[in-house]
Amino acid sequence: MRDGLRACMKERAVLGPGTGRWPGLAAWYLPLGDRGAVFGAACVRPAPAADESGREHAQALCALLGQALGRLHLGHSMQAAQREVERQQLQSTFLAAISHDLRTPLAAIVAAATSLQTQRERLDAAAQVRLLQSIVNEANYLSTMTDNTLQLVRLASPGQVLQRSWESPEEIVGAVLARIRQHDPARRIRSRVPEGLPLVRADAVLLAQLLTNLLDNALKYSEDEIELSVEVQDRTLELCVQDRGPGIAEGEREAIFQPYVRGDRAGRHGTGLGLAVCRAIAQAHGARLLLHPRAGGGSSFCLQLPIEPQPTTPEPPP
Amino acid sequence: MSLHVLVVEDDREIRTLIQSALSVEGFVVQTAVTLREALALLQHRPPDVIVLDLGLPDGEGQELVRAVRRQSSLPIVVVSARHQEAQKIELLDAGADDYLTKPFSVAELLARIRVALRHRGTALAAAVTVHELDDLKIDLATRTVLRDDQPVHLTPTEFELLARLVRSAGRVVTHRQLLAEVWGPEYTEHTHYLRLYMGQLRAKLERDPAEPRHLLTETGVGYRLATE
Fold first, then answer.
1. In the β-sheet with B222-225, what is the strand arrangement from edge to edge?
2. Other Cβ atoms closer than 10 A to A163
3. Of A18, A286, A295, B99, which sits 20 to 30 A from A157 (CA to CA)?
């Protein structure tokens, strides 16, 4: 039968008894579609050579099927074209944003470095320290941006597999805090991590990046204390970063998770990639990342990570 | 006598920067651009420490780490970019001593080299048996652990885990190494054992287990017992 269907699709004509083509076959083979495009073929049995009206009936049905398939096909190719357009748009937004966000810090680095190169003798010690600090800051910013960009591209690519294992939320938070406190000399971050938290199945490096981005944002956009808390609600681990910053307007609360959208359009820094990466990391973990306005002002970002049945623990020590 | 460092790095800018930063500190610096060149230099005169960049044009560094480990406990510090995570862990498992992630500061590079040198010649023998930092004192020979001069009771497994970190104090120890050496080679995938036992150790040894001073987490890699 497979050969018959193939031949029918190839010849784009009805085959079988009474059709004048391949009369020796035990069935009629009818193409689905018209001369322009054939999307398939049908096999109809029994197929008496004399049953002309039966054959016509089958042909009419197959013509209808062919039209329907044609419409489906058209729809698909239009969607594919639409997706391609969107992909290209994203790519050009991407390139525009990247080149803008690369140029600004690069300009600062080159300016500071060349100033030191040509004017060092005339600059006082404090000015030299300022220039050096600005080179370090801008370069670190470029490094973070590169990490976020690569991570976003990686998470968006199909077939992305997470390196999941059993991880301790307390450890991840502790490691992130140890690093980020170096940029928080005033110790504005207050953390509340209860004892005895369950383990989670997660990619620790990605979760750490998510938390780092949230804390970086909070430090950048607010002047006051920042609260970091971890709680267990039912079968969900809730990790929240809350600030007393200007907050985010209701209309922007969804948009801010899109790449290249940021809360402070006038602000000098921020690629608008950080939160997009956070959302992508949350989604890859089957988790939700929510943004709520905070009572009394500011924003509250919460990651809700499902808690899976805990692994069997090693034998209790004697 | 000055200490010799072999820097294996194919990027000229970074190689030159590392060389000048280390020379200023009094090290004698040799450089190699490829693994082949590094292996040849090692035959000629073994240095006191190797700084090895990942992603060299002629290979991934495993060969160098194995070749060095067959003969000596010469410390090796791996320098990697963030996307080379898996490769870095492989080298650590294969016997490299520690790592640095690009971009790194000169201060970080010097700190890693200092720690690596402290362990010179001790990676094979259990020479480091006493550890002391702030409120914590550990003596492996007498199996005593003191916190604020008060004895802390540890279960045998907790003690084994802590002892393994003490023997490499200041250096990262990978998940795989800890699981294989404390629980056994068939347990290298049981990362949850580590999470649970490290949690218990921190609860007993740390003032604030959520922000540890001693038992540091190297996310995705392993743990490190702080020495400074």
1. B172-174, B222-225, B215-218
2. 12
3. B99
Q: Do A204 and B157 touch (CB under 8 A)?
A: no
Which pLDDT value is given to residue A264? Answer: 54
Q: Sort out which chain A residues have CB atoms less than 8 A from B82's CB and list them.
A: 147, 150
Q: Residue for token digits 């970080």?
A: B108
Whole-number Å distance between alpha carbons of B67 and A254? 54
User: In terms of residues, how long is chain A?
Assistant: 318
Of A108-112, B63-67, B163-167, B202-206, give the lowest mean pLDDT range: B63-67
Contacts of B155 in chain A (CB under 8 A): 317-318
Identity (one letter) of the amino acid at B200? Q
Tokens 């391949």 sit on residue: A22
CA dihedral (B115, B116, B117, B118) in degrees, to 10, reads 50
Q: Which residues of chain A have pLDDT under 70?
A: 35, 90, 93-94, 97, 158, 260-271, 314-318
Nearest neighbour of A170 by CB, restricted to B85, B103, B199: B199
What is the C-alpha separation between B181 and B202, in angstroms, rounded?
A: 20
Size of interface A-B (CB pairs under 8 A): 75
Give this complex's ipTM: 0.87
Interface test with B, best of A144, A157, A170, A199 (most B CBs within 10 A): A170
Helix axes A204-221, A169-180, angle to 10 degrees: 40
Q: What does the alpha-carbon distance between residue B104 and residue B163 come to, in Å, rounded to a whole number? A: 29
The verdict on a CB contact (< 8 Å) between A199 and B192 is yes
Measured in degrees and rounded to the nearest 5, phi and psi for residue A196 equal 70, 30
CA distances from A75 to A69, A82, A222 (A): 10, 10, 48
Residue B139 has pLDDT above 60, yes or no: yes
Amino acid at B58: D
Q: What's the whole-model pTM score?
A: 0.77
The model's confidence at residue B122, banded by pLDDT at 50, 70 and 90, is very low
